[in-house]
Description:
The chain is α+β, with helices and mostly antiparallel strands. It folds into two domains: about 5-230, Rossmann fold (3-Layer(aba) Sandwich); about 245-355, CATH 2.40.50.140. It is about 20% helix and about 35% strand. It has eight helices and 21 strands. It has helices spanning about 40-50, 95-100, 115-125, 145-155, 175-190, 200-205, 225-230, 235-240, and strands spanning about 5-15, 15-25, 30-35, 55-60, 65-70, 70-75, 80-85, 160-165, 195-200, 210-215, 220-225, 245-250, 255-260, 260-265, 275-280, 285-290, 300-310, 315-320, 325-330, 340-345, 350-355. The strands form four sheets. The protein has a six-stranded mixed beta sheet with strand order 7-8-9-3-10-11, sandwiched between helices. Strands 2-1-4-5-6 form a five-stranded antiparallel beta sheet, with helices on one face. It has a five-stranded mixed β-barrel with strand order 12-13-14-21-15. The longest helix has 18 residues, at about 175-190.
Amino acid sequence: MSELVIDRASVAHGSTLAIDDVSLTVASGELIAVLGPSGCGKTTLLLAIAGLLPLRSGTIVIGGREISRAGRTVVPERRGVGWVPQEASLFPHLSVAENIGFAVPRRGGRGAGGQTRATRIAELARLVGLEELTGRAPHQLSGGQAQRVALARALAPRPDLLLLDEPFAALDTQLRTGLRREVAELLRAQGTTSLLVTHDQEEALSLADRVAVIHDGRLAQFATPEEIYQNPASDWVASFVGDVVELEGRWRHGRVLCALGAVEAHAVGFAPADGDDVRLMLRPEWIVPRPDLLAHAAAGADARIAAISYAGHDAMITADLFDGPSVLIRMTAVELPSIGDSVRLAAQRPGLAFAPK
């Protein structure tokens, strides 16, 4: 078992709390994404787990063994924690095999599990798809290949927990997309408990079993990707994890009366009374053209297509409401309207109602 339990952990840089009272539990074998903007405390949290920063308060437990509390920290090399940095940071004078082998335990020539070091190195190289490149030097590798070596090196001692600090950030888009999917599949196949730090919302939502959203050093929400996106815990989380359309309106019997008509909604973080002012948030793909509603004045709203931003698989469309502001709608790029077309728009699923600012 390699369950990670962080209980009310706080980490300070001088007098400033970089991590403030964070609690979360990562089940054995789970891949968790730690998501947040730059400077929110994501990497600080990883450094504390790795033993490179002390806790001001709280505890960190891995596999039932307490490794950190205020005034007591197990040294990094005895934590059973692996680390994959943003840059591969390979030893330039060592080959691929030697870089991987650097982290294989030396116990009479045998690594963990009784394997010889050579067998373990070959197994890891094969695992990350580099068995034909073990004799190459780091400067002969592509960026993606170098990150595979860094991953193999981190997995070599069979860590209880693997920490990945934005390991795909320096790669080009196409390579990043393919490699991160392969790495996630590999970690799940190995049953490795993993924390992936990222500021990339798509990366977090597409790869992780659950996502921990960090805002100003605090845990804003910890849930599945679907829950984070569909039911964010706050207006900040809603805006951070994806595009939103925000409309002013009034609460009436579980609906928001706004420029899009009467939109069913869930109130988040407060309990509005009928007649209260609220802010309605919708994802652009929740707003769809509804020609069948043209005869129903109370349902939906008329708009004119003002702009189309084509992205291949889908398109982001700006529509000017006849009796309201402009809204964004996201549609698959199969049967797109044309600029200047008149459409009837309506929300196809309940929106999120937040208190006025």
